[in-house]
Predict the structure.
Amino acid sequence: MGVSGALARLALRHAHLLVIEVPGNWLTRVTVERLAAVRGWRLAVSPADADILAVCGSPGPELAPVVARLWEQLPGPRARIDVTRPDLAAAALDQAEAALRDTPRQRRDSIARDGRGPDDAPDGDTALAHGSEDRDGLEMDVLHVRLGPVLPDWPAGLVLRAHLHGDLIAEAQAAVVDAGHGPAGGVQVGGEPSGEVRPADAAELAAQRCDNAARLLALVGWRDMTQQARVVRDRLLAGERSAAITELARLRRRVRRSWLLHWSLRRVGPLPPDELARLGLAPELTGDVWDRLNGMLDRAALAAGGPAAVAVGTPVGVAAGVPVTPPAAVASVVSGWDLATARLIVASLDIAALGVVTDG
Amino acid sequence: MAETPVAVSGGWAPLAAGLLGTLAVAAALFDGALAGRAAGARSRMGRPVGEVARLLRQRRRTTVAADRLLWRIGGAGLLGMALMIVTVVPLGRWTLFDLAVGVVWVNALDVLAWAFVWLTGWGANSAYAMVGGYRFLAHGLAYELPLMFALVAPAVAASSLRVGEVAAAQQGLWFVVWMPVAFVVYCLGVVAMAVWGPFSPAVGRDVAGGVTAELSGVDRLLFLAGRYALLAAGAAFAVPMFLGGGSGPLLPAWAWVLVKATALLAGLVWLRRRMPALRPDLFMEVGWLVLLPAVLLQDLLVAVIVIGG
Amino acid sequence: MALVAVAVVAGCYLAHRALAIARRPLLVAPFESGWPPEEHALSRYHVRWYLVTVLFLAFDVEMLFMYPWAVVVADLGATAVVEMFVFLVGVLVAVVWAWREGALRWV
């Protein structure tokens, strides 16, 4: 057992976790991410890449089978933790570490999985893709791929069923998982998992903008700035306001000055004010993805900096501070874009809460 | 004119592979240290060691109706490709394979990256992986031609396709000094070949890791190791092509080759975290309308200087 | 070196056999955000940059002539340079034309 024990110890210094956020458990997810980073663990991008499945919140009837399916896709050694409150995160991670360290147990688990094929897609059941005409009139296959609820840097609970021509989203339908089962009778809010609508304070509001900006920056592939945005987010949540403000200012400066980022994001997903009004999106999302990224960081600075509008320490109503995004609007704005661009556009919408109205 | 390198027996191949491996591991360590520093992690060193241990312990996966043979060929191919590239890189006075068309050899090998990365994406029978694979081809269409024309510039200047002679032709003045455009384009090509940093949309987060979305265990380890090895092999090949080969004061020639390769490799690794990715659709225009004409002008300039001088 | 490459890959697989928690690969459904896939992903994929591939092919064939040319250009002198670059300019004009036709853009 000497070799495998040593191997397990080494491996555990860099475990990868796939984090699943049940809508409304934003703070729990952020806490798990932060504590994992401190341990030197990393966020997985797919189940194949993951050792730990970290479920933040209690999944409803629609999300539970999704989680179960993902659990089966983890290669093993694997550990599943269910974190229902931010203060339980540290203990849950310890528990995951212990489970992964136990090589005999992992071997037993792995052997028990042999012979059990994937539940939902035995070989014969999955259809072959069928043809359809693309916009040039060529007949090619269409894939129906659902994006979300579990995808790196994706808004919690959102599901987009995309009709893919190659990587072009020809059309999409949106839904929210467990839409009738969310807290507060339907409208999900950032904050407490307990179910009551809790007014988010200014620091939390700012932290959430930073978190969304970090996601967009991660999708853009700019690692240093992603990290920077997460650091600001964690500082804001830890109450280290002045340090957060300084670092946020640096982040905004560097983002604004990057001509490469500007070149990459300008003219992507332009949304004029009348279109926003028609779709039920907030007016501050006017412009392209570049404008929206900067807007997001500006709003973070505004909320963190605490001018009269959003006084620090004064509770700000969720309804006032965080607009609810209708899922149908998300489906509408990504149609016609390729997958990469569509992901940037979704991330640029600065989604804090999703309405439960689904479109067909 | 310095002496051109002599070919040594194939028995030295493990040593060359070991050197490449050392470079690749050093690159991974450096990258891990940078990532650990940025994340404020407790343990900053040894990230690749932990990663290797993790992947060796992890179980392999195969997906429903996967094209398994092609999938595995793609996964292991990058590493093999990197090893084949270093066979023509002279280490000071020695080279494994003194090919008269060494430059063409490397060119032929680097195109294989298209096949290997795409196959890794295709084989998994996974939508995200496939999107990743095709993204790489889109990048390839834009970076490959500039890369090829960038390799021509040193060959023209040396009037030879033999890597050792190209290195020997740089006595006094390194090619990087008077063909900077070709050098920069070559470096971009290396970074792209290794699906690295700005050329990482094929393994992007937005498609759940792209071509790597379904890889686990040793399969993932080989693909990741292949990327580092390619980056290292690309940096090593730049030394005889642009950086004067083994020339330098004090140290022996072989040491200079390693020093230069390490320095360039460190630069490429560092670059990864510093800039956003280049979207394939946008980079297509850059590749064809900026890089290609620029590198052709560079070739013209080199040709004119060569016939004039 | 090919042997070394094979040995390295084989060595990795052997090490994995010895060290992994299970030898046989696990059969799973491909990842699709947690849903079962509706269709097999292996399909006729819309490659929306197909026009560029034609352009690439034309240039790539041209590129092959560049290597022998590189070796002899110093001996042949100005004529060889002029001939080659007149040809290259011709091909570049085609690229510019293709760009104006929108062949390099697809999103």
User: Anything to note?
Assistant: Residues 179-354 of chain A form one domain. The beta strands of chain A are 16-21, 42-43, 52-56, 79-83, 130-133, 139-147, 158-165, 168-176, 324-325, 353-354. Chain A is about 45% helix and 15% strand. The CA atoms of residues 57 and 89 of chain A lie 11 Å apart.
